[in-house]
Amino acid sequence: xxxxxxxxxxxxxxxxxxxxxxxxxxxxxxxxxxxxxxxxxxxxxxxxxxxxxxxxxxxxxxxxxxxxxxxxxxxxxxxxxxxxxxxxxxxxxxxxxxxxxxxxxxxxxxxxxxxxxxxxxxxxxxxxxxxxxxxxxxxxxxxxxxxxxxxxxxxxxxxxxxxxxxxxxxxxxxxxxxxxxxxxxxxxxxxxxxxxxxxxxxxxxxxxxxxxxxxxxxxxxxxxxxxxxxxxxxxxxxxxxxxxxxxxxxxxxxxxxxxxxxxxxxxxxxxxxxxxxxxxxxxxxxxxxxxxxxxxxxxxxxxxxxxxxxxxxxxxxxxxxxxxxxxxxxxxxxxxxxxxxx
Length: 342
Known about the structure:
Layout: H1 2-7, E1 11-13, E2 19-21, E3 25-26, H2 35-45, E4 49-51, H3 59-71, E5 81-86, H4 93-107, E6 112-117, E7 123-126, E8 129-132, H5 137-149, E9 153-159, H6 163-172, E10 179-183, H7 191-199, E11 203-207, H8 229-238, H9 242-252, E12 256-257, H10 264-271, H11 280-287, E13 298-303, E14 306-311, H12 322-327, H13 329-333
Parallel strand pairs: 3-4, 4-5, 5-6, 6-9, 9-10, 10-11, 11-12
Antiparallel strand pairs: 1-2, 7-8, 13-14
Helix pairs in contact: 2-3, 3-4, 4-5, 5-6, 8-9
């Protein structure tokens, strides 16, 4: 049944010439001890796309699950699209290939299907502090291109890059970014960035498509996507779950989507999104929901004797989120913000 379900999943043709399934299993926040079973179950059920990252701290366990599936004949390596990401402390060109090789070793693979620069904000450690790495993202990108030439990865791309940062890469690239992975859901539809990327031959992967209500820095009183009235009204009418509506929201837009779960029933439910469609009215209603960006790590600083929660990396020259730069523009100028806690 897994192969039959897998065959129902559309794939998008990337600028690299390779194809990427439009739905995959996310592994961010999937704890060791649970992620192996989750990946196994997902592949057995029909998923053929697994999204990973070195910083998630679970690639060894993901690799164990992949090997089990390959060895047991559930699927072949070439049938599963596997993504990972270069972490922020590895932006120097000489660090890129070793970081990729470490990921490949952890996952037990000879190559990746897609390798992304995880954030445009590079850091380096000096005297026990993390400070902004001055390496231009274009130089990191050139090192990524060499990994393609070395046969270590088939496609390369970006994650969390805004329009201007993506343009910089496009101008310098010998190999065009195949994908930009960004936070996107009905609270943050990212229409302008998605249109820009697609117009330039870059596909989009939406992370946190369900609102990431289980992330570590959830604040009291935050809006909850899966409890939003319009989402649940549409779900009830279609006989679907709120999560399925949010996943289908991306598929209708031709956006790749990677919902995360370690619960077998939810892994299955998240996959069952190809037997119904959202109307134009549904899509319009969903895209006019309240704006809320959830996946920005935060920290607490003291300004004029008062505590304030701000984006952790706001002081970085390559911080990518324009609306937060505007919101915190005065705070960003303060010496008090130049924190050691990056």
